[in-house]
Amino acid sequence: AQSVTQPDIHITVSEGASLELRCNYSYGATPYLFWYVQSPGQGLQLLLKYFSGDTLVQGIKGFEAEFKRSQSSFNLRKPSVHWSDAAEYFCAVGAVTGGGADGLTFGKGTHLIIQP
Amino acid sequence: EPEVTQTPSHQVTQMGQEVILRCVPISNHLYFYWYRQILGQKVEFLVSFYNNEISEKSEIFDDQFSVERPDGSNFTLKIRSTKLEDSAMYFCASNGQYTDTQYFGPGTRLTVL
């Protein structure tokens, strides 16, 4: 069965500092990997996704993530965080189906706190 | 930009009552999903729907739950007899025929008293 582990429940960084949120996955086949962000009381917004090809993917709001197959990781990074980045971040994995109806498996999320 | 919408944003109900949560997926999408997120916990997959039938469902999606696409635009989740533990945020999502990217709605917060 597939699973996603986000080992950091909370992370606190200073505004302007760099950020890395960790995500490890377990999946038997080629995975689809996603990062979603959830602001308080809001829905899930897609930050970026990896399907295949270049292992470094760029997303919205200046985020990027790197897929490392050997480490089963898909860590999210941002070089300089802004106070508006404070939110809950979810890593998710799904099946590569070329358009299909497989449910995503989410990690437990990492709560990002930005210090002034 | 097209988006998934959900109504109501907040639903309060008494234990044992039936509730219907409504979603309008992105118009040209063909695959539809429901997820739930109990307060403070991770998002969990409930069910996926394609071509007017359930494609996949999780162990959470028991006989108390049902889904329907009553017309060309709406996608609903019905809980027949709500329990306290059904209190959660329920998210609808959809994706198109040639993409595996699921787009999520803003959610409906269900509170069962």
Task: Summarize the helices and strands and which ones pair or pack.
The complex is a heterodimer of chains A (116) and B (113).
Chain A: E1 3-5, E2 10-14, E3 19-21, E4 24-26, E5 31-38, E6 45-50, E7 56-58, E8 64-68, E9 73-78, E10 87-95, E11 105-106, E12 110-115
Parallel strand pairs in A: 2-12
Antiparallel strand pairs in A: 1-4, 3-9, 5-6, 5-10, 7-8, 8-9, 10-11, 10-12
Chain B: E1 5-7, E2 10-13, E3 19-24, E4 31-37, E5 43-50, E6 53-57, E7 65-68, E8 75-79, E9 88-95, E10 103-104, E11 108-112
Parallel strand pairs in B: 2-11
Antiparallel strand pairs in B: 1-3, 3-8, 4-5, 4-9, 5-6, 7-8, 9-10, 9-11
Write up this protein.
The complex is a heterodimer of chains A (116) and B (113). With 116 residues, chain A is mostly beta strands. Chain A has one domain (3-115): Immunoglobulin-like. In chain A, 0% of the residues lie in helices and 51% in strands. Chain B contains no helices and 11 strands. The model of chain B has no long low-confidence stretch (mean pLDDT 93). Chain B has one domain (5-112): Immunoglobulins (Immunoglobulin-like), CATH 2.60.40.10. Chain B is mainly β and 113 residues long. The chains are: A mainly beta (116), B mainly beta (113). The A-B interface holds A 32, 34, 36, 42-46, 49, 51, 90, 92, 94-109 and B 30-31, 33, 35, 41-50, 55-56, 58, 91, 95-107.
